[in-house]
Write a structure and sequence with these properties.
Residues 8-252 form the Carbohydrate kinase FGGY N-terminal domain. By secondary structure, the chain is α+β, with helices and mostly antiparallel strands. Helices cover 37% and strands 21% of the residues. Helix 2 packs across helix 3 and helix 11 (307-317) crosses helix 12. The longest helix has 25 residues, at 375-399. The N and C termini lie far apart (54 Å).
C-alpha cells in the first residue's frame, strides 16, 4: 500500500505497447505497468490498429492493473496520449466504423495528396497550413476514406484521433489538442487556431466541420470520468481528465523539453523531433504545429521507421530468444564494430520516409553487403542509418534558422546508451537525459496534474532529475563525416529504381 495522498494517472498507447504510470504531485513514481500489442498491415502502405481491441482495451487493462492496490478516490486526475495523428471514423453512437488509420507510416493517401495539391495549389496549402501535405497529414486520409469506403463515410458522424478517442471513452466528450489538430490539414488554420472552412469541400465533400472534435490545449480539462467509464475501468466517477495529446509531445513534456530552444529527440518505433520555438519558422520539409500549452509553437519532424526497424531485425535474426534478450545481444555485438559497420550503409526507409525527404515511396536500401557481414553488421548499419537520418533532420532545422539550445533524448531506444552514442558521434551533438525515462506516460501524469489544478507549468522542472549527458567523440565523428555524404547520395542514386519497384 502506498503512502496517502493524491496520485496522477498517465496513460500512453504506442505503436507496439501501452504504458501506464501512477505518480505523486512531486513526480515520484508509485506504480507502472506495460501491455504489449501489435499493429496491422492489411495492404502495402496501409498501417492500422483496432481502436477498441487495442487502444481502449489496453487503457482499461492498464488502469485496472494500476489500481489493484490503490483507492481510486486517490486518483486526482487522468491524462492520455497515443500514437498520432491517426484517423478514426465513428458512427452516431460513437462506435468505430473501421480500424484506425495510423500516422505517417501509413502512406495510402499518396494519390489524394497529389489531387489536393493539383486542385488547391501547393503554395496555397502551405500558406494556409504552414505545412506541406505529406503522409503525416490527416486531410488526405479523410479524402481517401470518402473515396474508397463510401459505406463507412456515409455512416461517419465523428472524425477523431487515438488520444481523443480515449478521452471520449472516459468522458463522453469529443475534444482534440491543437498540436494534433494542426495535422488534420488543410482543415486547421494555425493563425486562428480553429477549424477552417476554406478547403472543407475538397476534404469533406458536402459534410460539415461538425464532424471534427472541439479544440483545446493538452493540459486543459476535457471532462470527467463518466459512470460508464467508471464501471469499465474502476476509476472514480467525476475524476478530471485532461485533453491529452500525441505520444511524441507527451514524451517532450516527460523530459522537461518545454522551453524555447528545447529539442526533444524521441527514440521510439519512429524517431520524432519536437522543438519549442518562440515563433514559427514554417518550411515544407518539416511540420509547424501548436505546442502543449497555450501560446506555444513547435517545429516538429519525424522519421518513418527507426525502432520498428530494429524490431524487424530482432524478429528476423534473433527470433530464437526472448525479445529483450535479443535486443541486448544485438546491441552488444554491434557496439564492438567500428563506425561504418565494416563497409555497410543502410537507408532506414522501410516504411517510406517522412521528414525531411517526405517520400512515401522510399524503401530500405542496404549497400555494401559481403559474405563476411553478420547480423551484428546489419544491426549496427541500421543504428547508423537512423543516426544519419537524425543528422539530416537537424541540418534541416539549422537551414531554416531554428535555434536549438539543448537536445534531450527519451524513449525505449535510449536504454543502454549505445544508440545515443552513435547518434551523438554522427551529429556532433550532445544529448541530455533524465533519470526517469518512462516517456509519454510520465508526461501524461503531469498533464493530469495540470487538468486537476494541482500543478503549475513551472512545477515540471522539479520532476526532472538529470543524468550525465552523452557527448560526441571527435575521432568517430570524423569517420562518420566521411560516410554521411555517401548516405545522402545513396538515396539520390537509388530513388529512380526504388520508385519503379512494385508495391
Amino acid at each position: 500500500m502506498t503512502a496517502p495522498g493524491p496520485l496522477l494517472l498517465g496513460l500512453d498507447v504506442g505503436t507496439y505497447s501501452s504504458k501506464g504510470v501512477l505518480v505523486t504531485p512531486d513526480g515520484d513514481i508509485v506504480a507502472q505497468h506495460v501491455v504489449a500489442h501489435e499493429m496491422s498491415m492489411p495492404a502495402a502502405g496501409h498501417v492500422e490498429q483496432d481502436a477498441d481491441a487495442v487502444w481502449w482495451a489496453d487503457t482499461q487493462s492498464l488502469i485496472r492493473s494500476l489500481l489493484q492496490d490503490v483507492d481510486p478516490a486517490r486518483v486526482a486526475g487522468v491524462a492520455c496520449s497515443a500514437i498520432g495523428p491517426t484517423l478514426l471514423a465513428l458512427d452516431a453512437e460513437g462506435r468505430p466504423l473501421r480500424p484506425g488509420i495510423l500516422y505517417g507510416v501509413d502512406t495510402r493517401a499518396g494519390r489524394q495528396i497529389d489531387a489536393l495539391n493539383a486542385e488547391l495549389g501547393e503554395d496555397a496549402i502551405f500558406r494556409h497550413s504552414q505545412m506541406a501535405l505529406t503522409s503525416q497529414a490527416v486531410g488526405p486520409k479523410i479524402r481517401w476514406l470518402r473515396e474508397h469506403e463510401p459505406g463507412v463515410w456515409a455512416r461517419t458522424r465523428t472524425l477523431t484521433t487515438a488520444s481523443s478517442y480515449l478521452v471520449y471513452r472516459l468522458t463522453g466528450r469529443h475534444v482534440m489538442d491543437h498540436h494534433t489538430g494542426a495535422h488534420f490539414m488543410p482543415l486547421y488554420e494555425p493563425r486562428t487556431q480553429q477549424w477552417s472552412d476554406t478547403y472543407r469541400r475538397s476534404v469533406l465533400g458536402d459534410r460539415d466541420l461538425d464532424l471534427l472534435p472541439e479544440l483545446a490545449w493538452s493540459d486543459e480539462k476535457a471532462g470527467e470520468v463518466s459512470a460508464e467509464a467508471s464501471r469499465l475501468t474502476g476509476l472514480r466517477p467525476g475524476t478530471p481528465v485532461a485533453v491529452g495529446t500525441v505520444d511524441a509531445l507527451a514524451e517532450a513534456i516527460s523530459v522537461g523539453a518545454t522551453g524555447p530552444g528545447d529539442l526533444m529527440l524521441m527514440y521510439g518505433s519512429t524517431t520524432f523531433f519536437v522543438l519549442v520555438q518562440p515563433s514559427p519558422t514554417p518550411d515544407p520539409r518539416v511540420w509547424s504545429v501548436g505546442g502543449a500549452f497555450p501560446g506555444q509553437v513547435n517545429l516538429a519532424a519525424g522519421m518513418g521507421t527507426t525502432g520498428s526497424l530494429t524490431r524487424w531485425l530482432v524478429d528476423e535474426f534473433a527470433r530464437e530468444v526472448p525479445t529483450e534478450q535479443a535486443y541486448d545481444a544485438l546491441f552488444t555485438e554491434a557496439a564492438d564494430l567500428p563506425p561504418g559497420a565494416d563497409g555497410l550503409l543502410m537507408l532506414p526507409y522501410f516504411s517510406g520516409e517522412r521528414t525531411p525527404i517526405n517520400d512515401p515511396q522510399a524503401r530500405g536500401v542496404i549497400a555494401g553487403l559481403r559474405l563476411s557481414h553478420t547480423r551484428a553488421h546489419l544491426f549496427r548499419a541500421a543504428l547508423e542509418g537512423v543516426g544519419f537520418g537524425i543528422r539530416h533532420n537537424l541540418e534541416t532545422f539549422a537551414d531554416l534558422g531554428a535555434q536549438i539550445r539543448r537536445v534531450v533524448a527519451v524513449g525505449g531506444g535510449t536504454k543502454g546508451r549505445h544508440w545515443l552514442q552513435i547518434v551523438s558521434d554522427i551529429t556532433g551533438v550532445a544529448q541530455e537525459m533524465t533519470r526517469v525515462t518512462l516517456g509519454a506516460s510520465y508526461g501524461d501524469a503531469f498533464l493530469a496534474g495540470r487538468a486537476a489544478g494541482l500543478l503549475a507549468h513551472e512545477d515540471l522542472q522539479t520532476w526532472m532529475k538529470p543524468q550525465a549527458p552523452v557527448l560526441p567523440d571527435a575521432q568517430r565523428k570524423a569517420a562518420y563525416d566521411r560516410l554521411y555524404p555517401l548516405y545522402r547520395e545513396l538515396y539520390t542514386a537509388t530513388r529512380p529504381v526504388v520508385h519503379q519497384l512494385p508495391a
